[in-house]
Amino acid sequence: MRPASESDGALMSEPLHFHFDVNGDDFTSAGEASVQVKKLLRQLDVAPELIRRISIAMYEGEINMVIHAHGGDADVFIAEDEVTIRLRDDGPGIPDVEKAMSEGYSTAPDNIRALGFGAGMGLPNMKRYSDSLTIDSLVGKGTTITMVFRF
Amino acid sequence: MLTVKRLAEALNANRILMPEPNREVTGGYTGDLLSWVMGRAQSGDAWVTIMSNVNVAAVAQLSDTAVVVFAEGVVPDEAAVRAASLHDINLISVPEGAFAVCAAIARMLEV
Ligand SMILES: Nc1ncnc2c1ncn2[C@@H]1O[C@H](COP(=O)(O)OP(=O)(O)OP(=O)(O)O)[C@@H](O)[C@H]1O
Ligand SMILES: [Mg+2]
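Structure tokens for the assembled complex are given below, as produced in the milestone run.
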């Protein structure tokens, strides 16, 4: 984790920006970025229930990038009244976003299911826990997911 | 108040890790599919599961459950215990199945 902008952000006039690389072939460290963000939000005294929603939604997105897209990167912007999370990958893309959003739909392979993933609930959780969710996906190119959480 | 310590004693559980013995247990959830847990479990729940890999620690941490209760005598793998210890996650294990454990926890919570 590193602050990506020069501003110290103490006045919160400009959003704080953090950038994370999400390693695609390391399952054991998957979720590290979300855990870091959780810690950051705690330091900033964000309400616990909001922290919970934000960090779970980010974890779901992070895990999806690892499982379905060989990794990617994450940008987190923390402003005075909202948090924006942008998850970007160069994976296979999502051919049918509406279908992918429906509860229970999953293309996760058996070895991933054996770990407890693949319920087809990740994207629905991201939608439920965020105030807005935008999916921008191109087959063969990749996926960008943007979530906004308002304080 | 039902603390994790008291819950572990009442269940006669094997304490795998208990960095927060005085954490209050306010409810329960059972399930092995991690996204269901993240979508449905509440902060303060006892999470009963037979899933034992490292991702359990992350899910418990992010969901803010009070304790992970491994049913059927399941023992979490080393990576899971290591990750849980980094984040002060309580882990206990019991020989009974999830149904029996949940019933016992429900009695203690008087739900
Ligand atoms: N970043 C991504 N790149 C490509 N496909 C994706 C991506 N994220 C999700 N998908 C597709 O959308 C489907 C549904 O995603 P969702 O997170 O809801 O479920 P899942 O990851 O399969 O299971 P769960 O999240 O419950 O463990 C996935 O199975 C996959 O086909
Ligand atoms: Mg998912």
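Residues A 60, 63-64, 122 surround magnesium ion (ligand 2) (CB under 6 Å). The first strand of chain B starts at residue 14 and ends at 17. Further analysis is deferred to the final report.
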